[in-house]
Amino acid sequence: MHVSRTTRLLTLLQVLRGKKRPVTAAVLAAELEVSERTLYRDIAELSALGAPIHGEAGIGYVLRSGLFLPPLMLNADETEAIVLGLRYVDQRGDEVLSQAAADALAKIAAVLDPASQEALRNPTLLPGPSGYGYPQNTVPLNVFRQAIRSQAKLQIDYSDAAQTSSQRLIWPLALGFLNEARVIVAWCELRGAYRTFRTDRIAAAAEHGERYPGRRSDWLREWRKLMEQQNESAPFTPDKN
Known about the structure:
This protein has 241 residues and is an alpha+beta fold.
């Protein structure tokens, strides 16, 4: 019975994670094939354990964002996948991302069961040798991250592969980490098209004081679709014009 209840609780969490909008107790109970009384009890138990579940009468339940990884939540394969990703970030990220990866790994380690702890201490997956030696950036990556998060237009001084300098007003969408360089994906007002810029070739960057229109996710989705249509073998190609 204990295993059955644990499985049911974890399944309920997974179902809530997959819901983008609040869902009623009746719908959840039907999906999990339990009574509404059982569902209310499970919701209360998960909330007591720290799951950020929000419920409102007449609207339903929604799982808010936030870290909630109770014991048994990750098996050995899932643990190693997360550790591999975080160690990859530690190798290729800047100081901010490296520290964030270390903090995230510490939080995850604190809630793993004994079997997963062993996978954490002695992983079978390794990220490969470090020391790729990214070119030095003049502008800290955090400047780009903040602009991306706030959808702020950026005025940049950029030099292409031929050392031709230009000033660009860009709409930053995402940062890409390649083995040999870091690039920023953006809409370029000068070119009227999507472009990618190597961050080490950006001599200066400042927020323009305006937010670009629409949603960043929509612009990024359109860029990905364009890349697929062009059958690009590599998604990031630094701007050459």
